[in-house]
Amino acid sequence: MAVTAGSKVLNNVEAVRETLYEAMKNDDRTVILGEDVGARGNVFLITKDFINEFGPERVIDTPIAEASIVGIAIGMAMEGLRPIAEIQFADFIYPAFNQIVGEAAKTRYRSNGEYTCPLVIRTPYGGGVRGALSHSVSIEALFYHVPGLKIVAPAFPADVKGLLNAAIDDPDPVLFLEHKKTYRLIKGEVPEGHYTIPLGKANVLKEGKQLTVVSYGLYVHWALEAAKKLEDEGMSVEVIDLRSIRPMDKTAILNSVEKTRKLLIIHEDNKFGGIGAEISAMVAEEALFSLDGPIRRLCAPDVPAMGYAEPLEHEYMSSPEKMADAMRELVRF
Amino acid sequence: MATTITMPQLGETVTEGTVSQWLKKVGDTVEKYEPFLEVSTDKVNAEVPAPVTGVIKEVLVKEGDTVPIGTAIAVIEEVGAAKSEPSAPSQPAQSSQPTAAAEDRFSPGVQVASANGNGHARSENVVPSSYGASGGLAQPMDAAGMEEALRKASPAVRKLAREHHIDIRSIRGSGANGRVTADDVLTAASMGPAAAVGQAIATGTNFGATPPPSFAPSRPSTPGTPPPSGTSTYGEPIPGTTIPLTQARRIIAERMVESKHTAPHAWSMVSIDVTNVWKWRAREKDRFERETGYKLTLLPFFMRAVVESLSVFPLMNAKFTPDGIYVNKDVNVGIAIGLATNLVVPVVKNADQLSIKGLAIAAGELIDKARRGKLGADDLAGGTFTVNNNGANGSWASAPIINAGQAGIVTMETVEKKLLVQDDDSFAPRYVMNSCLSLDHRVVDGYVASGFLADLKKRLEKMGPAGAL
User: Fold this and answer.
1) Is B286 annotated as catalytic?
2) Has residue B232 been placed in a domain?
3) Could you report the predicted ipTM of this complex, rounded to two decimals?
4) Overall fold of domain A7-191
5) Domain count of chain B?
6) Burial class (CB in 10 A: 0-12, 13-18, 19+), B253
7) Residues spanned by the domain of B183
8) Does A128 reach chain B within 8 Å, measured CB to CB?
9) How far apart (Å, rounded) are the C-alpha atoms in residues B88 and A33?
10) Do A167 and A141 touch, CB atoms closer than 8 A?
11) Does A16 touch chain B (CB under 8 A)?
12) Is A221 among the catalytic positions?
């Protein structure tokens, strides 16, 4: 990979690490707290050695108590610190649900604007890593119903850094979702220094004429792969990386669908009531007369969790091949 | 039998591994589960056990090299199967197979799959097969196919067809199962209207039941090119050419001549102060549209007054027959609706039994059906009197032709705001509308007709400005 001056090639883990490091370095108010973030340096080594440089008061090893992690972070945020709370795996976030939904998301509204909650909750999510029941979950649909909470799910290292910086700068709570499988799989150029990418802005990764594909996280990479394959077959598919799930970039989606007239939404989370359902409804409401085919969703089946057995995991997960099949079918519809 | 060993995945997020040390070399024997190399990743160092018992036949990756997960790193010849098969992994053959299968699966019959596999399928796929190189229509679709095409048309196709004045039924679809796609409509539009029209005509589209498509050319024909024979266009007439008659046009012409020649028309007009009705409608129209989905126009108010007047003057709801004047039992009011290329007169049955609201909904349904070309024979039959709301474009007076078999037709002309002298000699700005009546002089004379018009005027002027619809 050719590296532009002022940037370097990082994978997603390194991009998170670098962004957190710079945030700790540049702003004394920044605090990192979570399970194993200190002495152990995070299970993916994201915060390795942070505790030695910034001390145990700013890099806090917490008990295994997610409600407390978020609850304490909310208090810190309301009183002027810039906490970055970590939920070790998204599968463990449920005990913190009340703190996130009932408290953090409503702080500004409840206090009539007197308090805000500048809190970032980072958590690795997603499957395809043989993580089985408790290391594979996607949680975005559980939280995207909640006004007052922003949700970000970047796919590329440069977006990881720009969006994590934006999340840290944001005066309100942001749930920052990092797809585990992309951690070391995806590498890319990342500009040096502090920069932000606005929350709520999608990225058109590949332009196309016959079909719009909207995705986020790991599946963006596979969708891109499938779309490029279809390009060889003479089909023109546009791929949009949502990047932010909420706020959602409606304009980017609508503009694209008005051009291609067909829409496929791909996500790893379950189909029923998922992000795709919201996008479908929005497009049906606002672009009905642009549609030249059914809106389709390619998502996980409605089973309680991803199995450990490889065939079960394959069945649950999509793949570039499954995506290409769905794309072909819609282009030809 | 030779077993190919690949770089294992050591950790959930690990994508590559480095061979730090080979614990066995080529020719060494390994037991199943015996560690035979060390791999390091950015997370762990681990010894990798042999999956089979055998002899190390090949080492494919040097110590210190980093390769992605799944890369072949060694080959072990299993003990007891020393006869070597070709050691080259059979992977290339395997990996090409699904691709070929996928190609196959996604090549529907209509598509000419290119033999070189490098897919120029798109051109086959996108250009509608009905348009050959010469730009003419290929096989005509049967009527059922045409209706199916219409039924399956997506919102985008319907919208584009409307915008380009193209009948979806005239297009041969290139989509799955012959579905007409948005691109098909645009292709048809870019080819001009001529290609598409003949087909609808050829299948004998009936006037009324399924109005023929309207085709406004999106561009004029190339100068010097004679209009294609057997086709007909409306919209931009080309000077110096004859537009062939459509079925609908022919029927309209015949009926007009028949009526005008057999029924001696007489004509009368009144001026009606509709201020109160106007205000009533203005007050109700938003709520009405919200509740029913139909626009509330002046038409149902007018129709209500007409049916009330008809009950007082039953001779206006009659028809001339050789045996005598037949006075209709039912009051079925036709509404004249001008479409781009023809005129339809759907009928509100038993209109005297409907309230203003009921009339508005019944008329709204018919107008909607007419615009969508969905009127059935039932909708068009049985009219006993006709209302023609032709004031929308500002007409101030008109002399309509009676629908054959009826005694009269009454018009609603444009509504204008005028300064009127009131009974007490004051001046007042009022909304005023003319209403014109053509009558079949064989059925009624001026005495009845002017009585009917005066009654209609009185009823409309008494309506509103409030009340239940």
Assistant:
1) no
2) yes
3) 0.74
4) Rossmann fold (3.40.50)
5) 3
6) exposed
7) 138-238
8) no
9) 52
10) no
11) no
12) no
